[in-house]
Structures are given as C-alpha cells and as structure tokens.
Amino acid sequence: MLKAVAEASRNLGFAFEPGESRASLLAQQDFRRMLSRERKRSERSGKHLLLMLVDGKMLSNNGDRPVLGKVADALSGAIRDTDLAGWFETGTILGVIFTELGQTDATLAVKVIENKVMSELQKVLKAGVLSRLFISFFAYPDNWVGKDSARSLDPALYPDLFEVVRRRRVSLVVKRAMDIVGSALALMCLSPVFLVLAALVKLTSKGPVFFRQQRVGQYGVPFVFLKFRSMIVSTDAKIHEKYVKDFIAGKACLRQDENAKAVFKITNDPRVTWIGRFMRRTSLDEIPQFWNVLKGEMSLVGPRPPIPYELEVYGLWHRRRLLEAKPGITGLWQVHGRSRTTFDDMVRLDLQYSKTWSPLLDLRILLRTPRAVLSGDGAY
Known about the structure:
two-stranded antiparallel ribbon; Alpha-Beta Plaits; 4-stranded antiparallel β-sheet; single chain
C-alpha cells in the first residue's frame, strides 16, 4: 500500500520544494464557477479531479478568520500550480480543486493529498485547533448511480446546478403549478379511456394492469415509473437491455419501418400484445405517468427518465440530461421524431431544453405533443 501511495504521489506531481509560491484564494463565486468549468472539462478529457473541502465552522460561531488564514496558507503549500484554491463558502469553508489527475485511483489520490495537507496543517496549527477542522474529499467522475440501486449525487460537486434552482425559483414554482393542474386535469378527463384500457389489458393477457419499473430521476434519485403493461408477463428484459446499451453506444441497427423510414428502435417486437402495440403507437400507455407528475417525481415536460442499467453505458456528458431538468412525459425529443433520432441527438435536445427552458417553452411543447402523438411518427 505504501509503495502504491508513493508511486501515486510521483504520478500526481506532489513533490514540493521549500519556498514554492503561495496560490491566491478565489472568491466564492469564482471558485464555484471554476469548479463547474473543471467538471465539464473532465467530461471531455476523461481525466479525474478531486474536490477537497476544509470546513472551519467549528472553530468558532462566526469563524476564526486568523486561523482560517493560516489554513489557507498551509493549503497553498500543499497544491500544485494547476490546482485551484478558494472559498467554497466565504469565511467558513475553504476548497481546493485538484485537476488533471488522469486515471489515478481516487482512493490513492485522496491518501496522497490528505497526507500532504495534514503535514502542512500540523506545521501551523495546534492539535486542538486542527481537531476542529473537518476535511472531506469528493471525486469526479462520481458514481452517483449504482449498478444495483440508484443513489443521489453529492451536491458539493454541483453547486452551479443548485444556484440555477435558486435563481429560477419563481419559474420553477410556475412549472410545478402547471404540472399539478395539468396532470390532475389529464387524469380526470382521461379517466374513461383509462378504465377502458385497463380492462383491455386485463382481459387480453395474464398479469397486472400496470407495468412498474425503477427509473432514475433528477439528480439520480430513483422512483417507480408507471405505464400500462404492453407486453406479456415474465418477458426477459435482456433483449431490451442489450438493444438500449447498443443504441446508447451508437451500435444499434438502423432499421426501417413499414414506410421505409429509418428508426432506432425495436420494431415488430413479438413480446408486445395487440393492445400494447396500439397503446405504444398512440402513446396511451403513458397515461399512468400523470400520477408520477402529480407526485412530483416527473414533470409534464422534460427528458425521459432512464432505467438504471442504461446509465452503465452513459458517457459523462450524457448524465447532464438528468442533472439539469426533471424527467418528463414529453419533451423536445418527442416532438422531433422520437425514435428517428440517435441517442446523442436526443441528449443534445434534452440539454438544449434545459438551457432554454421557460414556462412558455413548456406550453409550446405541450401544444405540439398531441400532433406528434396522433401522427405516431417514431412511435412503436
């Protein structure tokens, strides 16, 4: 272990000489902006980064600025020229972004950095003061969705996302109001259709009326996704899993429908019942999702929520579609041909939506959705 740590220290460039220059501290706004930029740079380069936070709130009720100043000086002696130090929270929490870590194991990197930081802090702080500092590390890419069960992301790495939520609080209240009113009206108005479809599903094949499946919502929070069951019971999900993973990786077969149009989806699936095929074609199998919207797990408009196994083959930039908007029943993808777009194009549409989102855009997409549903373009 010690040999591995020493090797990691050399690879990371943590070999310091006395008298190296001290780095200046970035203000809170600048530090958080740089954290967002470095996180996105990591998405493109594939090189890891670490965020270290030194919480000094326990030093005193208002923060002991002279002591934090010593901590800041010590930290500047424990970082490289390529690393960034600043205030994560002004006056109370110091942060350091360790960039360009390559593919070094995160556990080893943390050990190397922690040893160096503690060595520097012990030079300037007494043991009683040092014990009141809380040091934490956050690695990126972060596995905020596990293979067997989803878990939410740690907000420390994504302060920019929560800042957007704070700035757009009023618009988000309007969006939630639209979701509540729209989903409640849809469930009431479509209740006769709901009952007819439920009866047909039950009468034409064995099994439950509803198909329940774990999906991943915004920030990686799991929820139970509802649809009318459109397939026979005990269907092996491996067929869909393989196809979806191939589709995301860009390996899915480009097929043609009966009108000789290119599609990226399994067509004429023998597992689908006759009523299921009708519901899928008309998107009526999605009606139960209005209950997910009413509960706040989904929105009327937003990216489609993925199945956990889909995230296993997501690229880093693909994950942003789950971070920047709540999943929805319809969205830009649905009104732009659905299965006629590649996965990367779908993600780009989702990211375009999250950047330009407004209640007015939601209304425009909702008004265009019935036409897309009735045309059945890209639906199977």
